[in-house]
Amino acid sequence: MATNAAEEREEELKSALWYSIGQYIDEETIEQNINTTPQFIGALTELVYSQIENTSRDLETFAKHAGRKQITMDDVMLLSRRNEGLETLLRQKMDEIIASDGRPPAVEKKAKGRPAKGKGKAKAKQ
To answer: GO molecular function, one example (predicted)?
Structure first.
């Protein structure tokens, strides 16, 4: 029964996403005087939904690896590390949010624990 409820919830989410994408596509096609098909909207919806699933799975994994149950801005920034443009936009937005909250910007954290063998400070020769 739990699986059935989860499947129903997933279908509701996909339907809402399909509707939102359809509305956006309709606005753009009217503005640009072009046509699209319902199959295009369906395929785009599946693509976007798949990307959302992958992104959420990655964010959950990053948080779990850090020993947390809550996803933070650090997890989102880690996810954007391979997309320079996205990372730049997210950093700007993060700085705006921090400035509006009146908090000082986050300082880069140093790694905890001991360095791996052979990677620490070299021993002084005697």
So the answer is: chromatin binding
Residue 63 DSSP code: H
Q: Is the pTM for the entire model greater than 0.70?
A: no
Distance, in Å, from the CA atom of 54 to the CA atom of 60, rounded to the nearest integer, reads: 10
- Rounded Cα gap, residues 36 and 94, in angstroms: 36
Burial pattern 27-49, b for ≥16 Cβ within 10 A else e, equals eeeeeeeeeeeeeebeebbeeeb
Could you read off the pLDDT of 69-117 as tens digits, one per residue?
999 999 999 999 989 999 999 999 989 988 998 765 554 454 555 555 5
Look at residue 109 and tell me if it is in a domain.
Answer: no
Domain count, the chain: 1
**How far is the C-alpha of 12 from the C-alpha of 19, rounded, in Å?**
11
Contacts of 58 (CB under 8 A, 6+ apart): 79
Range of the domain at 39: 10-101
The string of pLDDT tens digits covering residues 19-64 is 999 999 999 999 999 999 999 999 999 999 999 999 999 999 999 9
